[in-house]
């Protein structure tokens, strides 16, 4: 593409410029993981091989955000064609609302312990991506992660903070409960938190990665690791079994997109992920012209659009096998126009409307041949459920915490069901050609981050680094929004007069962490990397 952003324009408080390369690029929230992906590119691997290596390495060096027990999603641009992968796991077949309520959980799913554990999808994602697109073997791509888990790695500032917060929280919540003892053995120093600069070794984690590499995932889903998960779950009153693990399969799906403006199309994966929320909001916002980034007029329309999108998604979006209507109806111009007309001059309480008929890590990679990957995986909340598989170092996710115990809710808990999922990879094309992958981590912040980054890039012509570094906002509930420091005070005052309830937190940790890679027409790669955290771009 002939880029229409100013590479030297730095309107926001950032010390970073975009990074350029021609042979390959890996952008993540961790310098070690980015280097792991670059190592694989230099060995002759493609963008998919690099994504697998980086994702596996992130389970080692960022265990406070993701792990082998995570779910994973990916959008792959390979040889001028786009592919979508959904490797989110289902709930155990033996679980039910009645059983969970009988445990004393009358209103909500528990957050920690065995009950919210769903089948981990990340290892199968690596296996299937490698089989379909990889140039190197899975064993080769997992080598860097195994090396760091065995030899150790130093904790960066943000990851050290994650260790410290988790240790303090877990001590208070369940420090003396046996089912959580393995977490303390693996992720603390005799019960005390690791700190910045400490060398952390994860030998059990390395053992598991070796088994996954040697058996192409079979050890995890039907071999000795599956047996260990099954035995520990039964011993401690969990629901997940080796049969649940054995039945897990990835879903290859067609990504869904919205024609936005100027030939750009924004792509996400279909439900059960919440990427459709970003598309629904952009489908509304495409009906307006925006003159200024960060103005009260722009922000008001963005605020109202994201509220309406979430209201509709929370009413209708869940496991696609359980949805009441065809989600494609949310992507029609008629839906976008209808919902845009619902945006008034003042802040409103979000209400759903039926459409017209008709703790996470993100990474992106690109290689010299034009192949690109947008990849995301997560344990959901920090270290996940707090359950670690004994002897294997696998921290299991707590994704099931998002199920509802209300049988009338579209996302109600059922056996073997995929829950509404927060982690989403994004991708941009223009006039049918790949522009590049992008993503923003952070629970329900993610689609909001996607909307803001995409609009910063498309509407306001900001370069990838500035599109990420621009001050962000987040809808919390009702008319309540949080906004980062950096927004104009007069703008915030005007938004308040329009009825928005604005809070400005002291830190930027709740506004997501993102990466972006753009490919120019001459093949040059331009990377932006989140300045809110320990992000890093590796390239050559």
In a nutshell, what does this entry contain?
The chain is an alpha+beta fold and 540 residues long. Helix content is 34%, strand content 18%. A seven-stranded antiparallel beta sheet has the order 1-20-19-15-14-9-8.
Structure description:
The chain has 540 residues and is an alpha+beta fold. Among the domains are: 23-153 and 200-250 and 362-400, no CATH class; 154-199, no CATH class. It is built from 18 helices and 21 strands. Strands 1-20-19-15-14-9-8 form a seven-stranded antiparallel sheet. The longest helix is centred in the middle third of the chain and has 21 residues, at 296-316. The mean pLDDT is 92.
Question: How do the strands and helices of this protein lay out in sequence?
Answer:
Blueprint: E1 19-21, E2 24-28, H1 31-42, H2 47-61, E3 71-78, E4 81-87, H3 97-102, H4 122-133, H5 138-141, H6 143-151, E5 153-154, H7 157-174, H8 181-187, E6 199-200, H9 203-215, H10 218-221, H11 224-235, H12 242-246, E7 251-253, E8 256-259, E9 264-268, H13 275-285, H14 296-316, H15 333-340, E10 360-367, E11 372-378, E12 388-389, E13 394-395, E14 426-430, E15 433-440, H16 446-458, H17 464-469, E16 473-477, E17 480-483, H18 489-497, E18 501-503, E19 514-519, E20 525-529, E21 536-539
Parallel strand pairs: 17-18
Antiparallel strand pairs: 1-20, 2-10, 2-21, 3-4, 3-11, 4-7, 5-6, 8-9, 9-14, 10-11, 12-13, 14-15, 15-19, 16-17, 19-20
């Amino acid at each position: 593409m002939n880029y229409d952003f100013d590479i030297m324009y730095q309107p926001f408080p950032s010390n970073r410029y975009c990074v350029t390369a021609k042979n390959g690029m890996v952008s993540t929230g961790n310098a070690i993981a980015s280097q792991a992906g670059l190592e694989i590119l230099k060995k002759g691997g493609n963008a998919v091989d690099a994504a697998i290596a980086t994702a596996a390495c992130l389970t080692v060096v960022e265990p406070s955000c993701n792990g082998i027990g995570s779910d994973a999603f990916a959008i792959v641009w390979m040889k001028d064609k786009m592919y979508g992968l959904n490797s989110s796991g289902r709930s155990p077949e033996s679980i039910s609302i009645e059983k969970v309520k009988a445990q004393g959980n009358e209103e909500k799913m528990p957050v920690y312990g065995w009950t919210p554990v769903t089948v981990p999808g990340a290892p199968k994602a690596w296996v299937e991506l490698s089989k379909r697109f990889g140039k190197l073997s899975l064993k080769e791509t997992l080598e860097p992660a195994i090396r760091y888990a065995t030899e150790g790695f130093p904790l960066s500032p943000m990851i050290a903070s994650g260790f410290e917060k988790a240790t303090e929280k877990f001590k208070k919540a369940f420090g003396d409960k046996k089912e959580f003892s393995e977490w303390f053995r693996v992720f603390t120093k005799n019960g005390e938190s690791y700190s910045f600069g400490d060398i952390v070794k994860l030998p059990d984690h390395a053992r598991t990665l070796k088994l996954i590499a040697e058996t192409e995932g079979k050890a995890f889903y039907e071999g000795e690791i599956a047996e260990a998960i099954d035995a520990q779950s039964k011993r401690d009153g969990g629901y997940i079994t080796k049969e649940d693990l054995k039945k897990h399969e990835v879903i290859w799906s067609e990504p869904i997109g919205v024609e936005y403006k100027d030939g750009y199309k924004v792509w996400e994966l279909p439900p059960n992920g919440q990427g459709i929320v970003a598309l629904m909001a952009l489908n509304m916002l495409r009906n307006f012209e925006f003159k200024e980034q960060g103005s009260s007029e722009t922000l008001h329309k963005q605020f109202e659009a994201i509220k309406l999108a979430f209201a509709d998604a929370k009413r209708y979006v869940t496991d696609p096998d359980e949805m009441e209507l065809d989600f494609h109806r949310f992507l029609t111009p008629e839906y976008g126009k209808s919902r845009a007309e619902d945006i008034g001059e003042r802040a409103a309480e979000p209400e759903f409307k039926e459409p017209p008929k008709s703790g996470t890590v993100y990474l992106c990679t690109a290689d010299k041949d034009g192949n690109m990957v947008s990849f995301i995986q997560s344990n959901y909340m920090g270290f996940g459920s707090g359950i670690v598989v004994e002897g294997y170092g696998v921290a299991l996710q707590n994704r099931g915490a998002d199920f509802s115990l209300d049988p009338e809710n579209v996302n109600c808990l059922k056996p073997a069901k995929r829950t509404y999922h927060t982690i989403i990879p994004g991708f941009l094309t223009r006039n049918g050609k790949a522009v590049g992958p992008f993503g923003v981590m952070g629970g329900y912040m993610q689609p909001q981050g996607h909307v803001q980054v995409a609009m910063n890039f498309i509407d306001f012509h900001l370069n990838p680094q500035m599109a990420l570094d621009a001050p962000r906002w987040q809808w919390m509930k009702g008319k309540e929004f949080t906004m980062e420091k950096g927004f104009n005070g007069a703008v915030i005052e005007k938004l308040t007069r329009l009825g928005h309830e604005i809070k400005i937190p002291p830190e930027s940790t709740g506004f997501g962490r993102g990466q972006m890679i753009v490919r120019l027409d001459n093949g040059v790669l331009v990377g932006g990397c989140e300045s809110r955290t320990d992000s890093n771009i590796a390239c050559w």
